[in-house]
Amino acid sequence: MLKQWIDEATYTVVFTGAGMSTESGLPDFRSANEGLWNNLDPSEIASTDALNRNVHAFTEFYRQRVLGVKTYEPHKGHYILADWEKQGKIKSIITQNVDGFHQAAGSKQVAELHGTLQTLHCQSCKKQYSSEAYIDKEYHCLCGGILRPSIVLFGEALPQDAFQKAYKEAQACDLIIVLGSSLSVTPANQFPLIAKGNGAKLVIINREETSLDFYADLIINKRNIGDILKELDS
Ligand code: APR
Fold first, then answer.
1. Domains in the chain: boundaries
2. What is the mean pLDDT of residues 121-142?
3. Under 8 Å between Cβ of 128 and 150
4. Closest CA to 113 of 180, 175, 48, 188
5. Backbone angles phi, psi at 201, to 5 degrees
6. What value does the mean pLDDT take over residues 188-209?
7. Which residue is closest in CA terms to ligand 1's atom 6?
8. Centroid of ligand 1 to alpha carbon of 87 (angstroms)
9. Is CATH 3.40.50.2300 the right assignment for the domain spanning 1-25+74-114+158-234?
10. How high is the pLDDT of residue 26?
11. Buried b (16+ CB within 10 A) or exposed e, 117-151
C-alpha cells in the first residue's frame, strides 16, 4: 500500500528523527533501551542553562556527539532517500537530526529544524568554527567566549530559515512519511500535523508507538527503517 501511495503522490515530504540514524551507529534519545535521555536529563545537559552553569559536562557531552557524527556515516536508507529526491519521488526532507547525514548521502532539499553538529559558534560573538575544534578540545573563541554546537538547545528558538522551509513543505505535500521519531518534541512535531491538516496522508514508520499515532493513516511499528526503505526501493 505504501509503495502505491508514494507512486500516486504528487508531492511527498519525509520527516526524520534520531531513529533514522541509529542504523548508522548513533544513539537516539528515547528508545526504550539505548536512548540518550534514559540516563541523562536533557534540561541538565542540552540547554542554555547547562551551557552557562555546567560547561564542563556540556562540552564533554557534545564533544562525544561530535565524535559520533565524525566516526559514523549515513547508511543505505539515507542514500535511498537521496536517490528518491533525484528521481522526484520525494521533494524534501524535514529533519530533527543534527548529524548532517542526509546531506552527506546527497539529499539537497533538507530543512534542519534543530541545526547541525557539523559547525560550532561562539556563544558571545557568534563567530563560526568547524566542529573539529571540539575534537581538539578547543572550547573557546578568540574573543574568549565559549564555543557551542550550532544546534538548537532546549529553550532556544528554531532557526527561522529551516522553520519557514519546513512550514512551506508541510503545506505543499500530499503525503508525509515520518521515519524514526517519537514525535514528542514541539514545535518539530507540529509539521506532520500541518501536513495532515492540509489533506496530506500521514505515514509513521517507527519501531515504537509515537505521540501522533492517532492521526496516522498508516503506522509501521517494530521494523527497521533501513529494511523498509530497501523494500520500497526494490
Ligand atoms: N527503525 C525504526 N525506528 C527506530 C529505529 C530504527 N532503526 N531506531 C530508533 N527508532 C525509533 C525509536 O523507537 C524512537 O521512538 O525512533 C524513535 C526516535 O525517537 P527519539 O529518540 O525521541 O528521537 P527524536 O524523535 O528525533 O527526538 C526529537 O528530541 O532531544 C531532542 O533535539 C532532540 O531532535 C531531537 C528531538
1. 1-25+74-114+158-234, 27-71+115-151
2. 96
3. yes
4. 188
5. -80, 140
6. 98
7. 224
8. 27
9. no
10. 97
11. bbbbbbeeeeeebebebbeeeebebeeeebbbbbb
Share of the chain above pLDDT 70, in %: 100
How far is the C-alpha of 6 from the C-alpha of 218, rounded, in Å? 13
Cell numbers given for 72: 559514523
The pTM of this model reads 0.97
**Cα gap 22→36, rounded to integer Å:** 12
- What single letter denotes the amino acid at residue 209? E
**Fold held by 27-71+115-151:** SIR2/SIRT2 'Small Domain' (3.30.1600)
| Statement: residue 34 has pLDDT above 90 | no
pLDDT computed for residue 234 by the predictor: 86
Q: Which residue has the cell 500521514?
A: 202
Cβ–ligand 1 contact at 185 (below 6 Å): yes
Residue 114: active-site member: yes
Give the whole-angstrom CA distance, residue 115 versus residue 148. 12
Our answer on whether the CB atom of 130 is closer than 6 Å to any ligand 1 atom is no
**According to the model, what pLDDT value does residue 35 have?**
94
Closest CA to 25 of 83, 101, 94: 101
